[in-house]
Design goal:
- This protein is an alpha/beta fold.
- It has one domain (11-153): Rossmann fold (3-Layer(aba) Sandwich), CATH 3.40.50.2000.
- The chain is built from six helices and six strands; from the N terminus they run βαβααβαβαβαβ.
- Strand 3 (74-78), helix 4 (82-93) and strand 4 form a beta-alpha-beta unit.
């Protein structure tokens, strides 16, 4: 039997800087502190949807040097926030494979920025993204045109 060691670093974007939106999860799940904190902060909805002034640009600008330094094989992005899409785009542009946790969650409401982030994260990787879906969601991914061999049932 061959054993492969997987090493990982945690990068926190800082998009959710309120303790109830970030710190509480780390404490309740007994997660260690991130290795890197990009400290990008947040902003109003308008600031987060206007490309130059959004969270996308600071996240992308600060995440790229982290990827260049650590040179990972994979980037795992959770959820549907702006940082999810920003990190997935940087990874994709650098040729790093992307795995999207919570892939397949859909509201089908294209007026929600979270829905746009989900779709773009899963489909914007030039065929390189892997979906880490939860029970019942792989079917949604298939109906949304996701390449089913790239879906892993994660829970």
């Amino acid at each position: 039997m061959r054993i492969r060691v997987i090493r990982g670093e945690k990068v926190y974007t800082g998009q959710h800087y309120d303790a109830n939106m970030s710190q509480v999860f780390c404490e309740e799940l007994a997660l260690s502190r991130p290795d890197v904190n990009l400290e990008v902060g947040s902003g109003s909805h308008a600031q987060q949807t206007a490309l130059i002034y959004t969270v996308y640009f600071p996240v992308m600008q600060r995440f790229e040097p982290v990827l260049l330094e650590y040179n990972p094989d994979w980037v795992i992005v959770p959820g549907d926030v702006n940082s999810t899409l920003a990190c997935a785009l940087v990874a994709s542009k650098l040729g790093v494979k992307v795995a999207h946790v919570e892939a397949g969650l859909r509201s089908f409401d294209r007026t929600m920025s979270e829905e746009i982030n989900r779709v773009a994260t899963e489909h914007g990787q030039g065929g390189g993204a892997i979906g880490l879906a939860f029970c019942g969601l792989p079917g949604w991914l298939g109906s949304c045109g996701f390449d089913m061999p790239r879906v892993i049932l994660a829970g």
